[in-house]
Amino acid sequence: xxxxxxxxxxxxxRVAAVQALFQSxxxxxxxxxxxxxxxxxxxxxxxxxxxxxxxxxxxAEVKLFAxxxxxxxxxxxxxxxxxxxxxxxxxxxxxxxxxxxxxMRAGAAxxxxxxxxxxxVVINEYLDIAHGFFSGEEPRMANGVLDALARLLRPAEAGxx
Length: 161
Known about the structure:
By secondary structure, the protein is mostly helical.
């Protein structure tokens, strides 16, 4: 992904969470190990650089980053079932690009929390992140799936009557 805009720590936290979920799934590493690796080696700036070298995410808020990763992993079975129901039948969850799957899991984890950010914020943030990773139809798919989850998980806030 391109560089997240400087001065947007919550967006940076979400980008890092997507990357960590991707890394955990691809490597088979325990999510806590991946969180620790990110906190020690990828979050925050190093002196003398602009912060984005070697995959660093300089502005990320560690607390938000870790919460998203932990929630996505703790609720993964439930969230994956909801994601699978929200996807078109020709696109099972396992068929999705692994980065898109990580992005949807992170967004779903934030929507799962009734005390989480407003639905519109979550969807807009992950749509922006999707555009950073993908240039095809993936952002549109992520938008539709996260909107469907918002209607399921927070119907009053999502405008469902």
